[in-house]
């Protein structure tokens, strides 16, 4: 019987996973959450390990040991670390793309939908910070064909986000004297750095950070 094809697994542990898998660097990780299905457990542990140690420094053996499964169980779902890495990226992007589509379809002015979309992508990034950190730091380690797929997926998301900016510019809600492309690049540049400074134990909550990012974006597009 052939290996069952992997599908995007949406089960994500609450909060940054690295904080839930203790002392990964010393090999004294906490017991894995065996209540999770095996595939979801593999993804959760791989995301935590890749974020904490790095993709190249994490072996298949590390993953299966921390997940409490055999290599055979892992290979039933994933043929390699590359498969795990790509699915970690994909599940976050699928979530964010679905959220963006829902927000964009709301019967609200473009500026309000842009504000909601901006806040949402920040909150979902922080709620799944390990996945986001892994995606931003390690995607270049995928084979070129897989990298091309990842870039195309992310480009489609950015284009949908940019469409909200352009709609607001057409309706006169937002400044039309700035490049929508530049707006998108500047905004997502800030999101890409969230993992370098955000700490879940800090004073700022994801919703507060999301609202602030969205407010700064809209102020820049409405103040003259």
Structural classification: mainly alpha
In the predicted model, the low-confidence regions spanning at least 5 consecutive residues are 1-30
The CATH architecture classification of the largest domain is Orthogonal Bundle
* Helix proportion: 55-70%
Assign the CATH superfamily of the largest domain: Tetracycline Repressor, domain 2
- Give me the number of helical elements: 10
Major β-sheet annotation: none
Number of strands: 0
Domain HTH tetR-type: 36-96
GO molecular function: DNA-binding transcription factor activity; transcription cis-regulatory region binding
Keywords: DNA-binding, Repressor, Transcription, Transcription regulation
DNA-binding region: 59-78
Can you offer a commentary on this structure?
By secondary structure, the chain is mainly alpha-helical. It folds into two domains: 32-77, Homeodomain-like (Arc Repressor Mutant, subunit A, Orthogonal Bundle); 81-220, Tetracycline Repressor, domain 2 (Orthogonal Bundle). Helices cover 65% and strands 0% of the residues. It contains ten helices and no strands. It has helices at residues 38-53, 60-67, 71-77, 81-104, 110-127, 129-138, 144-171, 180-192, 194-197, 206-222. Helix 4 packs parallel to helix 7 (144-171) and helix 7 crosses helix 8 (180-192). The radius of gyration is 19 Å and the shape is elongated. Mean pLDDT is 85; it is low at 1-30.
């Amino acid at each position: 019987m052939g290996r069952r094809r992997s599908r995007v697994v949406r089960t994500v542990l609450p909060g940054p996973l690295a904080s839930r898998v203790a002392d990964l660097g010393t090999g004294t990780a906490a017991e894995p959450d065996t209540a999770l299905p095996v595939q979801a457990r593999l993804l959760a542990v791989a995301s935590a390990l890749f974020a904490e140690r790095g993709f190249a420094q994490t072996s298949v053996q590390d993953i299966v040991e921390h997940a409490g499964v055999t290599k055979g169980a892992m290979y039933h779902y994933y043929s390699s670390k590359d498969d795990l890495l790509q699915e970690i990226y994909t599940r976050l992007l699928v979530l964010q793309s679905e959220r963006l589509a829902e927000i964009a379809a709301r019967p609200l002015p473009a500026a309000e939908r842009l504000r909601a979309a901006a806040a949402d992508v920040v909150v979902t990034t922080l709620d799944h910070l390990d996945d986001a950190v892994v995606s931003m730091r390690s995607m270049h380690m995928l084979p070129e064909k897989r990298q091309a797929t990842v870039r195309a997926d992310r480009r489609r998301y950015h284009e949908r986000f940019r469409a909200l900016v352009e709609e607001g510019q057409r309706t006169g809600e937002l400044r039309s004297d700035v490049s929508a492309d530049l707006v998108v690049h500047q905004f997502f540049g800030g999101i890409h750095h969230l993992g370098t400074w955000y700490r879940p134990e800090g004073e700022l909550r994801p919703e507060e950070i999301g609202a602030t990012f969205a407010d700064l974006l809209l102020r820049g597009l409405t103040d003259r």
